[in-house]
Specification:
Blueprint (H helix, E strand, L loop, with lengths): L1 H4 L2 H21 L6 H33 L1 H22 L5 H8 L2 H12 L6 H18 L4 H5 L5 H19 L8 H25 L8 H29 L1 H7 L3 H12 L6 H18 L5
Helix pairs in contact: 2-5, 2-11, 2-13, 3-4, 3-10, 3-11, 4-9, 4-10, 5-9, 5-13, 6-7, 6-9, 7-14, 11-12
C-alpha cells in the first residue's frame, strides 16, 4: 500500500475508475434510490468516514474557514450540493454513456470559464479547442441530429447533466480562491455545506412520496458512492495533485469518460452509436488542440 501511495498514475487510474463507476451505479440504481436521497446519503456517510482524519485539521483551520465563509458556501453549494444532485437527477432519464461523454467537456469548459471569471489569458488555439469540444458535446446531446438542437427537443436528462457539468467547471475555477487550509479541512467543510444545500431537496423528495426502496441493491449503491467515488477517490486525487501537480492530474483524468463508456456498455448493456464516437472524437480533439503549446 505504501508503494501505491507514492505512485501518482496508478492512484489516478483507480480514481478515474471510481468516478466513472459513480454514474454507472447511479444509473443502475435509479429505480431504487431517488437522486436527492443518493446525493444526501453519499456525502453524509463520506463525511462520517472523513471526519476522523479531518478533525485535527478542522480545529486548526476553523478561524480561516469562518473568515472565508462566502467562498466556502459557494464551493460547497456548487461542487457538492448542485453537481451531484443534478447528475443523479439527469441519470434518471438518460444513459450513463451519455453522462460520461457530456462530462468529458469539463476541461474545455474550465478553460473557457477561467477566461471569463478569472481573466485568464487565452490564445486562439485554446479558444478553437473549446469550440471543437463543445461541438462534440452538442453532438452527443443532439444524438447526431442538429434538428433536435434547433427544435429544442433535447433529452431532459442530457440537459440536466450539461448544467451539472457547467456548474462543476465553475466550481473548479473558483477553487483557486479557496482559503489556505489543509485539503482535508477544505473537503470536510465543503461536504458540510453541500449537505445543507441538498437537505431541502431531499425533504421535498420524501414529501412527494419518493422513498428509498428497501433492498440490498439500495444499500450497495449508497455504500459504493459513499466509499469509492467520494472518500477514497478524493483522497487519491489530492495525493495525485501532491505528487505530479494539478495540471498533469487534470489532463490524466480525461481517461474517465473512456472508462465510463466501457463500463456502461459492459454492465448496463448500453449501445455505442456513431454519434457517441463522433462526439467523443471532437471532445478529445478539442482538448488536444487547447492543450498544445502556443509556440508550436
Amino acid at each position: 500500500m505504501a508503494a501505491l501511495w507514492s505512485r501518482a498514475y496508478p492512484l489516478l487510474t483507480v480514481t478515474a475508475l471510481f468516478w466513472a463507476g459513480n454514474s454507472i451505479v447511479a444509473r443502475a440504481a435509479r429505480d431504487l434510490v431517488p437522486p436527492a436521497a443518493l446525493s444526501f446519503w453519499r456525502w453524509a456517510f463520506a463525511l462520517a468516514l472523513l471526519l476522523p482524519l479531518a478533525w485535527p485539521h478542522l480545529k486548526r483551520d476553523r478561524d480561516v474557514l469562518r473568515a472565508h465563509w462566502p467562498v466556502m458556501a459557494v464551493l460547497g453549494a456548487l461542487g457538492i450540493g448542485a453537481f451531484n444532485t443534478l447528475l443523479y437527477t439527469g441519470l434518471q432519464t438518460t444513459t450513463a454513456l451519455n453522462s460520461m461523454l457530456i462530462q468529458s467537456a469539463q476541461p474545455a469548459l474550465i478553460l473557457m470559464l477561467g477566461g471569463l471569471v478569472m481573466r485568464d489569458r487565452t490564445n486562439a488555439r485554446q479558444v478553437a479547442g473549446v469550440l471543437v469540444s463543445l461541438v462534440g458535446v452538442l453532438t452527443v446531446i443532439g444524438r447526431g441530429d442538429p434538428a433536435l438542437l434547433l427544435a429544442l427537443r433535447l433529452n431532459a436528462g442530457d440537459a440536466i447533466i450539461a448544467l451539472a457539468v457547467l456548474l462543476w467547471a465553475l466550481y473548479s475555477v473558483l477553487l483557486r480562491r479557496r482559503p489556505p487550509v489543509h485539503p482535508l479541512s477544505l473537503l470536510a467543510a465543503t461536504i458540510m455545506v453541500g449537505l445543507v444545500v441538498i437537505a431541502p431537496f431531499y425533504i421535498a423528495e420524501i414529501a412527494s412520496g419518493r422513498l428509498i426502496v428497501r433492498a440490498p441493491g439500495s444499500a450497495l449503491a449508497i455504500a459504493y458512492v459513499s466509499i469509492f467515488p467520494s472518500f477514497l477517490a478524493y483522497l487519491f486525487f489530492n495525493r495525485g495533485v501532491e505528487l505530479i501537480g494539478s495540471a498533469a492530474t487534470a489532463q490524466y483524468m480525461n481517461v474517465m469518460p473512456l472508462m465510463g463508456a466501457g463500463l456502461a456498455m459492459l454492465f448496463l448493456g448500453e449501445t455505442l452509436h456513431l454519434f457517441h464516437v463522433a462526439g467523443l472524437g471532437l471532445v478529445v480533439a478539442g482538448i488536444w488542440v487547447a492543450g498544445r503549446p502556443a509556440t508550436e
